[in-house]
Amino acid sequence: MYHFDYSQARSVQEAVAALAANPDAKFLAGGQSLIATMKLRLASPSALIDITRIPGLAEIGMDGNMLVVGAGARHAQVAQHPEVKRLIPALAEMAGMIGDPQVRALGTLGGSLANDDPAACYPAAVLGLNANVVTHQRKIAADAFFVALYETALAPHELITAVEFPVPERAAYIKFRHPASRFALCGVFVAKFGRQVRVAVTGAGPSVFRADALEAALAADFSALAARRVSIAPDGLNEDLHGSAAYRAHLIPVLAARAVELALTRRAIA
């Protein structure tokens, strides 16, 4: 590791001001991605601004008809929270699939979204549930938030403070995980809101994306059979030593069908 300065922010305003004063600095939450990249010399910020002590940044609760999860909420906290488990069990289950117990104890929702790893789980939940990413300046709709490989709509000095999740009628997440990292080789989040169905895919492309063909098929017939009948083109999908683009294309409707089967086993939210 190399030399860098470290400070603790006590408020969102203090954190943002510290980053504005030093554009070469980085926010530090769980550090599960940032510290690893620093060790590999892929990132070399001159300062880390610890935001884990900011009051209220990890709170979870309802605001009107939205389930609001603070950006500082740890994966384990989301997985175990009674309101998350009651209202959006798919979100709680997804958080419980991330990494290992050490990663879940430290990693945060906001950190995962800001990093936008192409194989991360949270982006699929945010996009699938049509959530709003709340920053200290604005709200960004999920459809506009994820831009490209490790790229989001966040401005250079913008800090995520929370995510607003609409409560779906039914939802489920299924992923085919890498056996070592537990990242998704392919993961599919399916959410049903009345006649609208959203299907978000992670791990298969450069960034999370919606599967339009699956959404149309499931809006017409919300069944596993309808999902399995959909064919996904491999064009533009990831290809590496773990799986070809064609393999990932095959996995998407298979996992979507399993997600639909799981969603149908749950009581629908009125």
How would you describe this structure in keywords?
270 residues; alpha+beta; Uridine Diphospho-n-acetylenolpyruvylglucosamine Reductase, domain 2; Enolase-like, domain 1; 5-stranded antiparallel sheet; 4-stranded antiparallel sheet; 12 helices; 35% helix
Give a written overview of the molecule.
The chain has 270 residues and is of the alpha+beta class. Among the domains are: 1-53, Uridine Diphospho-n-acetylenolpyruvylglucosamine Reductase, domain 2; 170-264, 2-Layer Sandwich (Enolase-like, domain 1). It is 35% helix and 24% strand. The protein contains twelve helices and 14 strands. It has helices spanning 12-21, 34-39, 75-80, 82-87, 89-97, 101-106, 109-115, 122-128, 142-145, 212-220, 224-228, 245-264; strands at 5-8, 26-28, 47-50, 60-63, 66-70, 132-135, 139-141, 146-148, 151-152, 160-166, 170-177, 184-193, 196-202, 209-210. The chain is globular and about 55 Å long.
Mean pLDDT, nearest integer? 94
Kindly report the CATH topology of the domain at 170-264.
Answer: Enolase-like, domain 1
CATH class of the domain at 170-264: Alpha Beta
CATH fourth-tier homologous superfamily of the domain at 170-264: CO dehydrogenase flavoprotein, C-terminal domain
Helix content: 25-40%
The arrangement of helices and strands along the chain is EHEHEEEHHHHHHEEHEEEEEEEHHH
* Strand order across the largest sheet: 4-5-10-6-7
How much of the sequence lies in strands comes to 15-25%
Q: Which ranges are low-confidence, i.e. pLDDT below 50, for 5 or more consecutive residues?
A: none
Main sheet attributes: strand count, strand direction, barrel closure: 5 strands, antiparallel
- Compute the number of helices: 12
Structural class: alpha+beta
Quick one: overall form?
globular
Distance linking N and C termini? 52 Å
Radius of gyration: 18 Å
CATH architecture call of the domain at 170-264 = 2-Layer Sandwich
